[in-house]
# Entry
Amino acid sequence: MPVPVIYYVSYLFGGAFITNAIPHLVSGLMGRPFQSPFAKPPGEGLSTSTVNVLWGFFNLVVGYLLICRVGVFDLRAIDQVLALGLGVLLMSLLTARLFGRFHGGNSPHAQS
# Structure
């Protein structure tokens, strides 16, 4: 039976949420402030490490729900893994561009 398209959309967004959890959890666990939607201005200012741990954990939960509780995700099904991987890749590229402007990632040669 074919997988409904909405499942692929769910896996794509699940990958995006899991990916978004990583920088928030890492920054929070290291005790470092990092941008979050709760900072002022949102997405630009820094939030505390505690806020980032909570936001990262929330992203993990949402990612889990979108991947593991929608349909029956199968790591051996290449189409489902591709949807998840595309979500990971797109969110990774988006966050690299958005946060690169704050941390020098968009113009590494200018930081000499």
Q: What stands out?
A: Helices lie at 5-29, 49-68, 78-103.
